[in-house]
Design a protein that fits this description.
By secondary structure, this protein is mostly helical. The protein has one domain. It is about 80% helix and about 5% strand. It is built from 14 helices and two strands, in the order H-H-H-H-H-H-E-E-H-H-H-H-H-H-H-H. The chain is globular, with a radius of gyration of 20 Å. InterPro entries: EmrE (IPR032713).
Length: about 325
Amino acid sequence: MKEILIGVLASMFFAVTFILNRTMELSGGHWIWSSSLRFFFMVPFLLLLVLARKNLSAVWIEMKKHPLQWLTWSFFGFVLFYAPITYAASYGPGWLVAGTWQLTIVAGTLLTPLFFDRIQTENGDLTQIRKKLPLKALCFSLLIFFGVILIQFQKASSLSVSEIIVGVTPVCVAAFAYPLGNRKMMELCGGRLDTFQRVLGMTIASLPFWMILAVIGVFNVGAPSSNQLIQTFIVAICSGVIATTLFFIATDRARDDQSKLSAVEATQSTQVLFVMVGEILLLSIPFPNGWAIVGLFIIVLGMLLHSYFTKNTQAKLLKSSPERKAEMRV
């Protein structure tokens, strides 16, 4: 239950991304700077956090062991996640981007068979068994996603087909890239790094890609405005540092239980609620009604079912045999 609450708190800070990215685009800011500047701003704060905990050397040691994997999965988890989201914000409203992003709650569950459990056999050898798709968790995730669709349905009628395609397709890519990069990095680190170390390592590993994008930005759109610098700095703190760290803490705590991990990833659905409230207060959009209210109710119901199912699963595990507990370890 604690992991789910942490996930909801992370979603609140993540919501800042969708609101400010949209306001930056409306004020003339370019998506290249909205995406790259966030990660440039994140580095010094994460460095200070890790240095204060006196465990920076472990990050370099782990990154030196598998440099190609760090570059690859950081690209998926950060670059292929955030660049498409900021690009989509150039063509669609914040609620459309935030709503489409909720596909990640289903994507995270569907990616489960790509990972393996390490199980010790009777003769003491370790063998790998492919993880099974958690069907109950998938059903709850689909229920939540259906609620998100209902929220978008009422507003989407005011958009053209081209706006929906350009605003939705990049976010669909990001929705699969983010959980894939996050889970692969958890698997690669194997618990040897804490959340702050892992976020710092992934941020550093993604910098070459952001530098390339920034160079393209300088030659094609010019330098960012002071207003965009300030707003991107806020996004970097709220979403890049606070939200990402909270979410990674929650997923780290749940990484040994796929149903629990799916429930944590499903907390991202609450971003729609926070974005909606933010846009009502800051951008004066109309208050939701009709199907949107039904959608909100379904999202809450899906989250409650996810929490109940996760709690019951944990209770059964505590009563299970030591052998069964060993099977659940990654």
